[in-house]
Amino acid sequence: MLIKISSSFSFMPCKASLTAQENETGMSSHKDVVTSYCTKVHRNRKMERLQHNYLFPEICARELEHIKKYPNAKVITLGVGDTTQPLPDVVASSMSNYANKLATPTGYRGYGPEQGSKELRRAIAEKFYKDMNIKGTEIFISDGAQGDICRLQLLFGSDMSIAVQDPTFPAYVDSSVIIGQTGDVEKGSGSYQKIEYMKCGPQNSFFPDLSRTTPTDIIFFCSPNNPTGHAANWEQLEQLVQFAQQNGSIIVYDSAYAVYITDGRSPRSIYQVPGAKKVAIEVSSFSKIAGFTGVRLGWTVVPEELLYSNGLAVINDFNRIVCTCFNGASRIAQAGGLASLSSEGFKAVLSLVDYYKENARILLETFKSLGLSAYGGVNAPYIWVHFPGSDSWDVFNEILEKTHIVTVPGSGFGPGGKEFIRVTAFGHRENIVEASKRLRSLLS
Amino acid sequence: MLIKISSSFSFMPCKASLTAQENETGMSSHKDVVTSYCTKVHRNRKMERLQHNYLFPEICARELEHIKKYPNAKVITLGVGDTTQPLPDVVASSMSNYANKLATPTGYRGYGPEQGSKELRRAIAEKFYKDMNIKGTEIFISDGAQGDICRLQLLFGSDMSIAVQDPTFPAYVDSSVIIGQTGDVEKGSGSYQKIEYMKCGPQNSFFPDLSRTTPTDIIFFCSPNNPTGHAANWEQLEQLVQFAQQNGSIIVYDSAYAVYITDGRSPRSIYQVPGAKKVAIEVSSFSKIAGFTGVRLGWTVVPEELLYSNGLAVINDFNRIVCTCFNGASRIAQAGGLASLSSEGFKAVLSLVDYYKENARILLETFKSLGLSAYGGVNAPYIWVHFPGSDSWDVFNEILEKTHIVTVPGSGFGPGGKEFIRVTAFGHRENIVEASKRLRSLLS
């Protein structure tokens, strides 16, 4: 709506404003002060619906508070899933060389294609989608999965209905709230109206009962799932694809942790399931494959065969979004991504994955030996630990207070996580071993 | 709305699908084929409203077509505003060193703060906002202005009314269409319903007549403007800020080219105007300052004093968007940004700016000497050339056919650009001089 012209200069008095105080991370914490002028712009109703801060910055803030409280404690961070091991030399040096070339007349490059370099797109098709007939032109290079999840939400718009696993990575729900697909949050349950929460817990082998799932336009599905660490097996993914086909839904499949799958019983890509190219988009990332959390690189596959109800291809609209709202990933990061897929690079990258998988084994073993029900940790770098009857924030706080170990309370991933905590296997081995000791002494 | 469960497995026949053929840039061109299955997901009505491809990829595609048609021609690109000169050594080597350190146990870093590094945020505050009392915590590091324009649209949501300069950078209008703030496009004029187009042409010294401008929630304002090259002067920006105050609007001020201002009559930041912190967000970028078009780095300032009508601070919601939809700019790019603001780096960067400004002078002089009305080129790297009575696509085509020079048709920047072309000063000097010669022989 257009604002009416006011006849005289207006200074609307305001009740409260906010001021920032810098903390150690450079993040701001704001508090109320008095001020004199407000704009007439209404706060976006959709932003108002968001319940609390985005989960992971909140965990970082709590960690910092704890460090302040116990300045001499050796805090171990098993919270945010952040890679800790150095990049392979071949990857770092390819980025280093690329950066140096930018200072030369022949090596300088300006804008790249918004969709990413042709070479990298082809290398991803070859490395991750061989025998699935995915073309380089169906792959869009991103600055990480989180950005593309929001760009996909822009593509879908506010009129879509969505389903998510419960629990799951919070960006799906939060971006859905921001774009306007949801109603308000229901007090008590913490669920948003209009979102279909697909319960995934020990009671159903972490795979939703699709016969009781209300069909939606879009199904976000993360496998191996963050936070439960469960990798859906062949039969489960076939069921999911068939469910989408029956209902005409689009699956947004997040395979950011697929490289951790080694049990042979779970596909690493949704496109290994026959028919998936007609119903699924796949979002992925170099973050947890190659340690690129700070380098920022990912990709999204939109198959040409994926069509709207009117027969038009989804890929064309996604291309439009990428060209309008994104200007390509850093060329330096892309050079690193390409090197990480080379024969030498990928071998080095997989040994990093093995390192984190051994961490996961140690942590999983720790919790199991204490008689706790712990899940994941085999095909994923996360362990999902059950504390029946407890509230996850209480467990989080108790572990933090008594062992100085940061975890993530399960309820941050959805109502279905309220009795769980997530423990990440990303970390230095010595810290993982030390954490294991502390946990054993606390929980035994 | 939720889709009804269908009782049997459904294969909806489809009229048309699209297939990709790779061209030289790795971009896809799609054409119709027959297929057997469509999802039931409706194409987003907002995406349907977009008129044509995003402008700049379209220009690149036309350039490639031209190269195919004339394989022996020496095509000169004065179209997309893309930097061409090598990075300063100090900038490239800082990125190179940072990348190398990522391969060491002590130098490895994972996720950075979503808002960017504290050091870089402070350095930007110091370099560009000195004496304006902008704090580092009010600055959010991005991967470039285009991404943040879309993230700002997510912040505002679909219920906002917006105004744009006409002509201006097309991302404002296109992102507004995508988020759902507009109606349909009006055939003929090419304007979108519900957008307030503020005409900026030679008739009004490229500054809108605010007394005839319908107030809106949001005013996108780019200065120096892309494409006209006009830098609003002090009086004009004071008028703009006062207009926003009177109506309670928020200005989104795009200062991506501010470093090109040298006439002393135009502010380089909106925050130099008293009161602007209560009404304006500023979006900017390292792309055209430091040659970072391929490196990807920018920033957005959201002052704490900028408040919604309910007294809450806009910065908190923008922080939420950044944390949810963006995971920080590449740390390597941030290292380069920091180096470009060092004493040595900034000196080198400014000499690049001088180089492009000399190109602009040559091109402006060329058009003027031919008796054409040409604008910009003094405080901006763009020249805006008037061809009264002509259609800009015709002029674009004629120049391309006869001189093998790529420009940008003015109508790509809005209805107000239909008799103009935009010529970029980004280029190697030899190409600029050669282009000048060719244009003189064509147009004299």
UniProtKB/TrEMBL annotation, chains A, B:
Name the top EC class. transferase
**Which UniProt keywords are given for this protein, alphabetically ordered?**
Aminotransferase, Pyridoxal phosphate, Transferase
* Gene Ontology biological process terms, A to Z: systemic acquired resistance, salicylic acid mediated signaling pathway
> What cofactor is needed?
pyridoxal 5'-phosphate
EC number from the UniProt entry: 2.6.1.83
Q: What is an example of a GO molecular function annotated in this UniProt entry? A: L,L-diaminopimelate aminotransferase activity
Q: Where is the Aminotransferase class I/classII large domain?
A: 74-438
Gene3D superfamilies, per database record: Aspartate Aminotransferase, domain 1 (3.90.1150.10), Type I PLP-dependent aspartate aminotransferase-like (Major domain) (3.40.640.10)
Name the domain of life.
Eukaryota
Instruction: Please state which protein family the record places this protein in.
Output: Belongs to the class-I pyridoxal-phosphate-dependent aminotransferase family. LL-diaminopimelate aminotransferase subfamily.
Protein name, entry field: Kynurenine aminotransferase, glutamine transaminase K
Task: State the organism named in the record.
Answer: Handroanthus impetiginosus
